[in-house]
Amino acid sequence: MKVKLISLFHVSTEEAVEVEAPAAEEKLSDGPEEEVQTGAVEEVAAAPKAARRFCPDGWFSYQSKCYMFVNNPRSWFDAEEHCNELGASLASAGSSPEYRYLQQITRTANRATAWIGGFYLQGYWMWIDRSGMYYTNWYSQSTATSNSCMYLQSAVGQGWRNLGCGTQYPFICVHNYRC
Q: Which pLDDT value is given to residue 177?
């Protein structure tokens, strides 16, 4: 599966502009969603850096994973290729708190949309990192088979959508902690 997608990539010579978003280790509360999002952004921005880091410079930490928002629009395939070159993949959203966090870092970068790692293949939606798609959060889903790549919308209360993979959006890479 991943090999098929990688074979569709082409090498891009442009360099990504990477934006570091604030780190957040605490779990988002179950309070009002808008207040949680706004408060989380402010609390995270004010949090001091931990003495021990598990994520490399330019990456930020949330729930035992390292994330990087790349504010250099690319096609979904080129975005995944860039993440692979960094030892990562496009981010998946396995839960509502994780999706809200991805939205939060996209808003922090002043962006309305970002590619994430969901894609449609042979009648199924799946995550590029091979994790199960047990949590879904569709805002609206296009039935066109040509719209086989997933992006998030950063506005509070908005779910993900699908679009043609050649559209250029900024994107979010993720990898597990490395000791």
A: 84
Nearest to 130 by CA among 174, 177, 162, 160: 174
Contact 147, 60 (CB under 8 A): no
Q: Which CATH class is domain 2-9+17-176?
A: alpha beta
What ranges in the chain are assigned the alpha helix state H?
A: 2-6, 33-46, 76-85, 96-108
Is the CB of residue 62 less than 8 Å from the CB of residue 76? no
Please compute, for residue 42, the number of CA atoms within 13 A of its CA located in the half-sphere on the CB side.
6
Position 58, amino acid = G
List pLDDT tens digits, range 101-160.
999 999 999 999 999 999 999 989 999 999 889 898 998 777 767 899 999 999 998 999
> What CA dihedral angle connects 34, 36, 41 and 45, to 10 degrees?
160
Nearest to 126, CA basis, from 163, 92, 170: 92
pLDDT tens digits along 149-170: 999 999 998 999 999 999 999 9
Residue entry with tokens 């442009």: 14
What the block records as the tokens of 21 is: 């978003």
Domain ranges, ordered by start, for the chain: 2-9+17-176
